[in-house]
């Protein structure tokens, strides 16, 4: 499967990189008590927000079946459900959209995308797809056969669903440190390399569809993977002849953590890191709704034969080969967004705001996933409502409670996001997390402070939070469309307490 290539070694690249100072320079405030993350951009277009009174918030969440996915955007003050597709585009991206070459085939827009891929990843072997999930579908169709396994540091919901749909099974080899909610470990998304070897040997390389590393491991709190670990995984895959795949959707945040937490990366540029990974991994795919602040997705590889083996799926599932189901304006925005993903000012914004929120809540005593990761701030709901059983969905309950408390939409990332076992029994999540995603370049510091304030109030009144039970439960990806109701009348009691403490305030 792997075609041998000459790679620039990590050590060589490190030596080259030390000649130029590319580490992150944080802005230090004269008065330490004023220290806050500093935006390196200005806002020139605004969108009005709406904050409903608390009674209306209660009605809205109950009408949505206590599923934050089903809330209407008009009823939300701060949308922290996800960072996917809600990041702010830059002036350069919006300008680029007006240059789109709207053609079914032979579009110059696609050529500009290839040029951006070449600059960022060092290859223009690219297959466009309408989003990251579409890339997962193509990869599963290409590699997963019944009875095979896909090895991952940790699964993502849709990735696992694609694998199981094709008759495969997901085997996780996350290092045990990744499931410790509060620690000082800088790279909790790392694979256990010894376990990776053991699993490949046990099943046999021919039974391994691929090994997938997820940068910024989503379901354990956006925790990063070290560059050293990623490269070691690729080397093991090459040794066994197993395809190595990097999910780079959250690679922007992950690179920030490499540069701030991994000594060997301090003087490397983001571009050097992108190129090194693209040279080592057989395949990289990503959602441009995350990486690049745009829409769409893509699969890339230095291995031309691998790209050719997946090419037929693009017109079958996506659209013509050179646009892959993405409108040309979004392709232009993606291309420009990829260039911006090399800019540390843009890369640092999300992680620094997330870190600020995590530190604020941690100081209040709220149990948070630590250290702060990418994607968003994650509340440890097993610590927030410790007496609530998994089958009452504590993370989902906390998410609904926070919406009532502040009009803030977060996302459950716990047992509700799992899928039942084949026999119908509930599969309990390793971690019960409520995610407060941080859309890039969107919210102001005052809004983040408001989030911290409302979470603190909820923490002080956590004894009022009760569980949820199913009303409508889909069989696949139930967290998207499922509907639940409160057990008892705890939400009404929470509203009464809010009115007692805040009076007529929204």
Structural overview:
The protein has 506 residues and is of the alpha/beta class. It has helices spanning 10-17, 54-63, 91-97, 108-121, 132-143, 157-165, 193-203, 227-240, 251-261, 270-280, 304-311, 313-318, 328-340, 344-364, 381-384, 394-406, 445-460, 478-481, 490-502; strands at 78-79, 126-129, 149-152, 169-172, 208-214, 244-247, 283-287, 297-300, 376-380, 408-409, 411-413, 433-437, 468-472, 483-486. The protein folds into two domains: 49-83 and 345-502, Aspartate Aminotransferase, domain 1, CATH 3.90.1150.10; 91-343, Type I PLP-dependent aspartate aminotransferase-like (Major domain) (Aspartate Aminotransferase, domain 2), CATH 3.40.640.10. It is built from 19 helices and 14 strands. The strands form four sheets. It has a seven-stranded mixed β-sheet with strand order 2-8-7-6-5-3-4, sandwiched between helices. Strands 9-12-11 form a three-stranded antiparallel β-sheet. Strand 3 (149-152), helix 6 and strand 4 form a beta-alpha-beta unit. The chain is globular, with a radius of gyration of 22 Å.
- The helical percent reads 40-55%
Strands in their spatial order, largest beta sheet: 2-8-7-6-5-3-4
Strand content: 5-15%
CATH level-1 class of the largest domain: Alpha Beta
Provide mean pLDDT, rounded: 93
CATH architecture of the largest domain: 3-Layer(aba) Sandwich
Distance between the termini: 59 Å
Taken from the alpha-carbon principal axes, the silhouette is globular
Structural domains: how many: 2
Task: Indicate the radius of gyration in whole angstroms.
Answer: 22 Å
What is the structural class? alpha/beta
Q: Using DSSP, what is the number of strands?
A: 14
Looking at the structure, the CATH topology of the largest domain is Aspartate Aminotransferase, domain 2
Number of helices: 19
């Amino acid at each position: 499967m792997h075609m041998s290539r000459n790679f620039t070694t990590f050590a060589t690249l490190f030596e080259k990189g030390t000649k130029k100072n590319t580490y992150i320079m944080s802005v230090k405030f004269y008065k330490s008590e004023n220290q806050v993350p500093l935006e390196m951009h200005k806002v020139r277009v605004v969108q009005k927000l709406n904050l409903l009174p608390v009674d209306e918030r209660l009605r809205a969440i109950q009408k949505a079946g206590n599923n934050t996915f089903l809330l209407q955007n008009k009823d939300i003050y701060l949308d922290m459900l996800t960072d996917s597709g809600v990041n702010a585009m830059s002036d350069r991206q919006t300008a680029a959209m007006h240059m789109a070459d709207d053609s079914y085939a032979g579009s110059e827009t696609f050529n500009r995308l290839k040029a951006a891929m070449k600059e960022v990843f060092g290859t223009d072997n690219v297959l466009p797809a309408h989003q990251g999930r579409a890339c997962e579908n193509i990869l599963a169709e290409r590699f997963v056969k019944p009875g095979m396994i896909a090895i991952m540091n940790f699964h993502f919901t849709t990735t696992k669903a694609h694998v199981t749909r094709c008759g495969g099974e997901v085997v996780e080899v996350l290092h045990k440190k990744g499931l410790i909610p509060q620690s000082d470990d800088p790279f909790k998304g790392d694979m256990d390399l010894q376990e990776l070897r053991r699993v490949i040997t046990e099943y046999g390389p021919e039974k391994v569809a691929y090994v997938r590393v997820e940068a910024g491991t989503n379901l354990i709190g956006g925790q990063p993977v070290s560059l050293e670990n990623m490269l070691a995984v690729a080397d093991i895959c090459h040794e066994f002849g197993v395809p190595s795949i990097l999910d780079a959707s959250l690679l922007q945040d992950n690179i920030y953590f490499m540069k701030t937490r991994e000594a060997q990366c301090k003087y490397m540029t983001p571009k050097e890191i992108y190129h090194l990974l693209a040279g080592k991994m057989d395949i990289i795919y990503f959602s441009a709704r995350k990486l690049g602040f745009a829409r769409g997705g893509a699969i890339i590889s230095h291995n031309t034969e691998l790209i050719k083996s997946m090419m037929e799926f693009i017109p079958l599932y996506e659209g013509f080969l050179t646009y892959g189901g993405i409108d040309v304006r979004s392709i232009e925005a993606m291309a420009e967004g990829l260039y911006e993903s090399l800019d540390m000012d843009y890369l640092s914004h999300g992680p620094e705001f997330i870190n600020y929120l995590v530190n604020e809540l941690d100081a209040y005593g709220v149990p948070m996933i630590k250290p702060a990761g990418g994607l968003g701030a994650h509340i440890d709901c097993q610590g927030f409502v410790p007496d609530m059983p998994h089958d009452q969905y504590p993370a989902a309950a906390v998410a609904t409670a926070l919406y009532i408390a502040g009009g803030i939409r977060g996302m459950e990332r716990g047992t509700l996001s799992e899928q039942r076992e084949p026999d119908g029994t509930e599969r309990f999540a390793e971690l019960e997390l409520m995610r407060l995603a941080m859309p890039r370049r969107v919210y102001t510091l005052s809004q983040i402070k408001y989030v911290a304030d409302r979470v603190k109030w909820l923490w002080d009144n956590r004894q009022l939070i009760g569980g949820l039970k199913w009303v409508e439960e889909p069989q696949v990806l139930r967290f998207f469309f499922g509907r639940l109701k409160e057990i008892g009348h705890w939400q009404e009691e929470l509203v009464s307490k809010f009115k007692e403490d805040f009076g007529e305030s929204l």
